[in-house]
Structure formats: C-alpha cells, structure tokens
Batch of 4 targets.
Target 1
Amino acid sequence: MKPVSALVLLLGIFSWTVAQEGVPEGMIRYSTGYEFPEGIYANFVMVREARPIPAARVVTDVDLFDGEFYEKITSADEIVIYDDNGVKKEFKTSNIWGYGRNGALYINVGSAFHRISMVGSISHFVASVTTYNPNYYDPYRYNPYYSNSYYHGNYNSPQSTYSSTDLKQYLLDFETGEVMEYDNESVEVMLMKDPELADEYLALKGRKQSQMKFVFIRRYNEKHPLYFPAR
C-alpha cells in the first residue's frame, strides 16, 4: 500500500471513530432530518423507543390514505387497535400520548394534538388550550321563571358555562416526558441538570432572563443531544 493511500485510510478511520464517540450503541443522534415513525404513540415509552402502533392496526372505517386520517380517528372517544397477537385493544383517546405523521411528532395536550415544532432534550411546542368556567355569570341570559321574581339576581342568578381558547407555549422534558408551561421557572427547572448553564441563566435579571429562555434551551440541547434507536 502506498504511503498516501495508507494515510487517507487512517484519516478515514479516525474521522469515523470521532463521529461515533459518545453515541450509544444502536442509537442515532437526533437531527432536523430525523423522521419519527408514523403511527399511534400510546405512551411516552413508545416515543423514546420510536416504536408506535402502525396505522394499519387501527380498527376504523377511515381510509388509511386519507390526508386527515389521524385527525379523524382521534376525534372519537376511543381508538381500537390490534396488538401483536391479533387481539383487539381499546384506548381512550384522551389517554393517548400522541402520534407520528409525515415524520413529525404530535402530542396530546388540552384534548387536542399539536405538532412539536422544536425537538430536543428540551422540546418546545405551541398548543391551543380550551378552558371552561361552569360558574360564569351571564347577566344577559333570560330566565322566564325568575325574571319577575324577588329571588332573581339573588339566589337564582342566571349562570352558564363559559369557554375560552388560548394559544400557550409548552416545554417537553424528553428524559422524563414531563410537560411544563414555557416560562422562566420551567426553564430554570429543566436547566438544573446542567449546573453550569443553570447558574449562567440564574445570573440574568428579570426581563433579560425572559428574553434568553430560547437561547439557553438551544444551548442545552447542543450540549445534551437526543438519541433514538437506529432503524
């Protein structure tokens, strides 16, 4: 073997070794090009193992190739699937963690499924959450039985259920599966696993800390990459 060829070979082996250093065996490092397997993720363990229930096992009349397949099956109260042994199992839709579609991951929060826009050891997503207030006082609601009564406006005030839908930002801890609201306190808690970053973040004051939340999340994800099983 010529000296130049031997040198090239050694450099190639060295580069491959460096690239693999720190990567757990049988795992690959998450990158923006990673595609989550498509299917139903009944729990967070399935997400970490990238092992969902295939859509073909879902018992439904919805066409498997329907572009809104997952939206339609998750609109029902229950999802029925065949397990590995061909036995039917029922899951309450409200208890399902989420699903994978077109390589993206969707999480169940606030009785709806939302795409996780930034995936990492600390992930970030936006969700529309509807809240209900059953004791909402409605002064304009007409009640024919009490409108002329002495008790109207006292013991029998008209009430109705009020709902409001708001966009909220959340964080997902990909180590524990815990979901927290996107605020200074939550970022502080998640950064505690890296004392150096946490101390730097806590040294920031008030408004500056709020402005730098996303920057510190990205820095944490760079230092603590996420890994999934190689397929």
Target 2
Amino acid sequence: MINWPEPRAHARGYFLPRLRRWYPVSEMVRLRTITLSAALLLLCVAIPAAAQGAGKRNDRPQETSSPAPQRAEENKKPADPTRYSYEFTQPEFVIRHIVIEHDASGHGKVTFERHGEETPIVEPVELSASAWGRISGFWSDLKFLDSNENYQSPKNFAHLGTYRIGMDDGKRQRTAEFNWSNNKSAWALANEYRRVADQAILIFNLNLAREMQPLNAPQLLNEMEILLTRNGLSDPQQLIPLLTELRTDEHIPLIARNHADRILKKIQE
C-alpha cells in the first residue's frame, strides 16, 4: 500500500509566482484580454434582452377592474313599517300597567308601572323567532286591519284587567279593547303578549336583585320556575345567558345559585 503525503494548506498568493514561471507574461495578458472581451460580449447581449423583456411586460394591457357590485341596500325590500302594541291595565294589581310596542321584526320596548309608584320603567324587548312566529300568526288570523269585530265576550271580567291590542301600518290604524274574549285568536294573542311582559319584568327584577337586593333572588327564581312549569314564559331559551351567570354569581345566596343551575338544566333538556 502506497503512503501518499497529506495535502498541505498553502498561503494566499502561493501559486502566483509559479503561474508566472509556468506561463509567459504575454500569454497571461492575452488570456486576461480574452476573458474581459467575453464578459463584455455577454453583457452587451444581456442588456438588450432585458430591455426587450421589460418592454413586453410594460406593453401588457392592464386588467380592468370589474364593476363594483350593487349595494346590498338596493336589493333589500323596503322595511315593513307596521307597528304593533299591547296594553294591560288593572290599577289594583302589583304591576298595574303594561305597554308593549314593537315593529315587524320583533324589536321594541316594554313599559310597566308598579302599584304605588308614579315613574314607569322602560326596558328593551326582543321577541324571539318562535314567539314572533306565534304572535304574527294570531295577528294574521284576526285580519285585524280588515276587521271591525268586537272581541269582548258577553261576560264581563273587568276586575281581572283590560286588554288593548293595536296595529298601525302607516296607512290604517286600529285598536281593540276587551277584558275577556271568546275569539280564540284574540285571546291567545293577549296571552302571548302577557308572557312576553312577564318574562321581561322577571329579567328586570333579577338583574335588580343581583345589583341591589340579592336576598330577593331565591323568591324570584321560585317565580321563574312556576312560570316555566305553567308555560308562562315567552321563550325560556332567552333566559339561558342570565341563568348561566346566576349559577356562579357569588353576590346572591348559594340556594339561589343552585336553583338557577337546576332551572338551567331543565330548560336545556
């Protein structure tokens, strides 16, 4: 086996004297001249090619932007201007006066007055899709603006309170009053609005209890469960966010938190 010597590292410029010895100076000058000439030739060829390529890119026609789509508002149908109202009055009741006003989308407000208090309380109200479906169905069944029917039953139950329902479509307006009715749609409509009012007032009272009267929370939750059992709430699903907060709210008694948790599970079943 032949032992070849290990390659050695050479300092910079080590081969330059040897190149001069191996090649004549004139030959090295000639090689350098050839190299520079070749580089210049390549540069002269590359510059026109690049300019031609740039010219091609610049001559490319600009894409025209597509016309902006029409505004969504132009495609929307005009909003339904119809306004609906419900009113209940019984001066001797704890809640002696209730008024609900809303538009055709179910957005509105509820105003109520307590017995012995002069200042009304106004709260926003939002009818759920299911509640509005039932209410609008009863309005349609009544053909309210096209009818002059008297919804008052021959029997008088004024001591239970008086109901007024009204509709205004911007051209026609009508209000009907009764304290009891044999018209199933009219009576069902009044009951649906009463559920909306009871649920809105209950939510208001619970929020008030959380902030100022936490000891009232257990009684209010008992009232909620009674209404839930009797189908006396407009849409129990709307109570889920509030109940979720109540079951972990340390400002109210533990018994109220546990009760809120039980009601929540019952609604979610």
Target 3
Amino acid sequence: MEITVIARQVLLYGHIIAFALAVATTIKEDVHLLRAKRIDSASLLATAKLVKWLLLALWVTGVPMVMMDIGTDVSLLLGKPKLITKLIVVGALTLNGILLHFVAFPMLTGKTRNPNKAATIAATLGAVSITSWLYASFVAVSRIVAPYFSLYDFVMLYLLALAIAVSFAILVVRNRLELLLKSSDDLTDTSAGQGHSLSAALLEVEIARLALRVCPGTSSGIAKLSKHEAD
C-alpha cells in the first residue's frame, strides 16, 4: 500500500471528524442561544473559538486532498463541479466566520446602542453560517445526484437555501435576538446601578468611621444625648 493512500485516508478521517464537530457545535450553540433568556457571552465566545479551530482544521486537511486529486493543474477543477462547490461553501464559511468574530459577536456580547441593527446583522450572519454548514453536508453526501448536477445547479441551490434561511432569520430570529439583547442590557444596567448604590453606601460608612476617629468625643456625646432623651 502506497504512503499516499494512507495519508489520504488519515486526512479524510480528520476532515470528517472536524466537519462533524463543527456542525454539531454550531447547531448546539444556535439552539442554546435561541432558548436562553439572555445572551451567554462566555458560551458564545467559547463556541466561536472552537469552531474557528475546526474550520482551520478543515482547510489543513482539505487542501492536501485537493492537491492529491488535481496536483498543480488548476484547470482540472473545471471538470469537478462538486469539488468547486465545496471550495465555494468553505470559502463562504471562512468569510462569514470572520464577520461573525469581528462584527456580530462584539455586538452580541457588548452593550449596543442599536439592538435592532445588531440583531439583524447577527441573525443574517448566523443564517449564512448554519445554512453553509448544512449545505456542505449535502454536497459531501451528494454522490447519487452529483452526476446530474452542474456547477450552476449546485451554486443556484446554495443561493436558494441562503435566501430562504436569511429571510426566515430576518422575519423570525431577529425579533428573538433583539429581545435577548434588550434583556441583557437591562440586566447589565440593573447590576451597574446596584453596584453604584453599594459603592455609595460603603463610601458613606467609611466617611462616618473616619469622622469618629477624628472626633472621638462625638460618639460618646451622641450616646449621652440619646440616653438623656430616653430618660
């Protein structure tokens, strides 16, 4: 058995494991986010970090397999519409992931001035993400229909799936995310107000304690006055 066959099998196995974990993690976090009562920043950022590394693993394992298939002759890609579609979808996932990390997640985990805008962006990018992962799954198992599909067919079906998913996200998911953002902001404001009140109370106690140290007769005078009034 040639070493290239073994290497290809190892790469394929790693590719499948990384892909399965990425899809499962993405779906789990999406469900968790939509069922939560407020934005769980820690969970969201941890999931984003994991998916980032899994996506990198897909590139690391996928590119060598492509090179084994076509070598350095890029023109051979023209006869492989399924492979081109995979590259398009993974490229879209990578670009979308960058936008999620640097645009959507900061809006979801921080205090935003425009919850509607933040919810719209997050819902749209989230829809692109989950649809792309699921479509990549479809392409991976499309051995039966692949001979009947051209590159145009694959791409049009992908765009149709994106259009449906984004429309659903805007009409349904956006409102849910906006409510989560508002509730998270209200909770943050309440916590900040309680913290401010507690700090003010502690400051008043400290001032009173210092005043008693400076004027030790004050406390005894107050105690005598209280006793006299009681008599």
Target 4
Amino acid sequence: MTPWFLGIDLGTGSCKSVVINEKAQILGFGAGDYAGSSAQQKWIEQDPKSILAGMIRSVQTAVEQAGMKVNDCQALSMGGALHSLLAVDRSGKPLTGVLTWADGRGSRQAQATRRTPQAADLYQNSGCPAHGMYPLYKILWLRQEKPEVYAMAARYITAKEYVFEQITGQQVVDYSLASGSGLLNVHTLDWDPLSLDLAGIEPHQLSQIASPLTTFRGLNPSLAEALGISPDALVVLGSSDATNSTFGAGATNPWQATCMVGTSGAFRTIAPRPILDPDARTWCYAIDESHWLVGGAINNGGIALSWLKDAVNQAFSQSPAKTELSFEDLIGLAGQAGVGAGGLVCLPFFAGERSPNWNMNARGMLFGLTLQHDIRHISRSLLEGVAYRLRSLSEILCTLSGDIREVRASGGFSHSGLWPQIIASTIGMNLLVPTWGETSSLGAAFWAMQGAGALPLFEKAGELVSIGSRYSPQPEEVAVYDRLYRIYNDLYASAINAFDQIAEIQQEIETSEQGKVWT
C-alpha cells in the first residue's frame, strides 16, 4: 500500500490538481480549463457546470498520471477562489453565473458604502475594505439592479461550495472563503449582523461555517468514478486558494510572507490574531480558530504583461510574417534593458487598483518616455511597476505585523529568473522560490494530509516544501529602485484627480455607442 493525497485548486480561470505521497513528493498533476466563448464567460461570470467539468478533467489527469491504486487515497481536499458569488433558488438551481472577483458590477455600491460612517465598522468587523470584488457588494448590486433575481435567491454560495455540494451533498463553507465574502466577522467567526443587514439577507441564506479540518465521507458515486477515486475517500473541507497558496509555499510562520504574482498579485502573511489597518489599506481573512491571513492584493500582476503582449501581437498580426511574441519573449527583452528601464516608470493600473488605496479609477501610466526607449524598456518598466506595487504592500504589512524576514514566491512569475530578482531588490528582502510552483494545489493536498493525521501541525508544512532558487537584494539595484519608487509614489499622488477625470471620460465614451457620437 502506498498512501496518497489529492489536492484540488478551483482557481479563477482553471482547476489544477496534484497527487502527492506522505513526503509531499509530486506523483501526478492535471489542469482543466473552464469553458467559455468569451472573456466575460471565462473570467467574470462563469457557468458553474463548466467549473465542475474543469475540476473533473483536472483530477482525472492527475490521478491517471500518478498511476496509484484507487483505494490507497487517504484523503482529498479542495481550495476555492476567493470572492466568488452564485445565487441559487430553493431547489439549488443557479439563478446567476459564478460572479468572480473580476466582476466589477458592485463597485458603485461599494463606493457609496465607503462614503458612509458605517464603512469603518464594516471593516473592523469583517476585515474587508468596501470594494466591489466582495460578494457583499455583489449582493447589493443584485438587490438594486436585479431585484427579480434577488427575490428568488434562496442561498448565496461560492464556486467551491457549488462543486463541494455536487460531490459530497454537503452545504458548508470554510472560514477563509466565508471571510472573503465580506459577510463574516473575523473576531467571532460567525456571520456578521451588520454586513447581513446591509445586504438584506438572513444567516439561513448562507452555508454552515466550518473549520478547514472538518471531514466528510461519502462521495457522489458517479462523480467519484469519473474522478478515479473511491466514493469512501475521506474529504477534508480545506480553505481558499489564497490560504492554500501560502500554505503550499511553506510560509506558515508570522515572520514569513508570500509574494504571489499570477494574473493579479498579492503580498500576505499568516498571523496568530486578526490584524486590521487603521486606514483599511489591507484585508484580514480568518483561516481557522488560531490563524488569520493578512495582506493586500493588486489587480495588475501578469495581466499588465499580457496587455503589452496582446498590443504588440495585434500589430504583428497585420504583417505577412504574423510573428507572435510570448511572455517569455517579453521577459527576455526586458532583460536586455538595464536596471530602472532607462528611467522609465510604469504605474501599472491597467485594471484599476485594489490594495492599498482601493481606487478602481486608477489608470496605467508610462512616465519618462524618450526617443531612446523601445519595447525592451517598456517591458522592463512593467515588471518593475508591478514590483513597486508589491513594495507598497510589503511596507504596510511589515508595519502592521512586525518583523518579516523571509518571503516565499508563488504564481507564474516564479518561473522567470528576472522578475523575482527585480522584486527582491525592490522590496529589499530575500525571495525564496519553492521547487514546486503550483503552491495552491499543493496547499490543498496539505489540508488533506493534516485532516488524515499525516501532517501533525499547520506550521509543519514548511518542512515539506523544498526551495528551488533564492534571490537576494543586490545593493546596486536597490539604490536605483529606491529612487524610482519615490518617483512612482509622487506620480500616483499627483494623478489622483486626473484618474477620476479620465475614468469619467472613458465611461462616457464606452456608453455612447462606442464613442461614435461622443464629444
């Protein structure tokens, strides 16, 4: 008998699953995209059935690749993307698609709440600043803009809750996902009356809250067969993808932090108590009864580089050669530009801003362009601009939580040698990159191990994570980035009013027949 554990990561754009043994060695891995005919369906409002189908494909691939005996699976656990919302009727039928964190339709409701005295109390209770990504404000949007859906909604759940109920029949939510809704009180670990009152809903419209180590047995037989696992396998509830990313990177101590850059980005640490910022620049989500995830998130991580890639390739598409640049090509070009990108500073707010200023009107900016700059400098300035964003979060987090001495990397950026070095020199801390980059699925597998008794303590996960590479701040780079970071901050402060004005103009253009009659 060779015991194995399954970790499932229901991410925003795809599901990734990993099979590991008791030593956390990778035995199999699989990924399953969510079907969608448009960017709206793939990233913003998703078909819940496509998420379930993507999960099945992901697990099938991982289990088949591992080639292990079905009955040797000791436990499985599932992580889910934060801030999703699905309204269902009394029979459990979806009334909406899965509204992801990228759905901004609750922004107006969040902005209105930010202007009220109630906003401070909501943050102190829930740990969630007033922002449209939170399900609380998505429910408010439904209440005001889709009253017929709001009236029919018997329950509000996340994507993970939907999938979990399909495979186990259980209506339950872990602390972290509940906390990421803006509806949980991070002190009492129960649904917050003030948040519920604002949303106009009752506790019975939300799932039962449970510890991530809550266990269940009895999978849906047909789904278990499709997944390639025993219907009697132990199921450990697990946590959110953000918690699992930190768990899987081995950053489980208060003196460690995780720096994540994927499509978006985050800088976070695990604390033994709720930590709230007097200025509400950061968030705080419960993990279990003795751990809280504290940090900030940015909208613009790899998506900034994606914007540049698409813009350049659109131009190339008109040429006979139809050459296309990849992400690797752009990072290679960035490596040809010197530190500081020749004095070119990027404010990478291509999709607005979350932490620390929660300004959805913030817009992208390239400052310092001259005739000497080219695609190499622009590419590097984007990488450096994201690093400045992460430094702004790391500075706040270090002030709030105390001494952070080590940072672990997670997300796609860790596959590049250049970007981690830029970030290490910008934030002024050592950056350690785990050998296994899919830390969210690995973190889910760690919950399975702990629930089955194979991992004694949450903090012991770090001992199972091997480090593949280390990046240290380089003094000559630090000196350059310190100067440019000050300019970056000055540019942001000077552009605040202009951000609001240009956002208003862009909205007017968008709503006036695509700009055809706008003046």
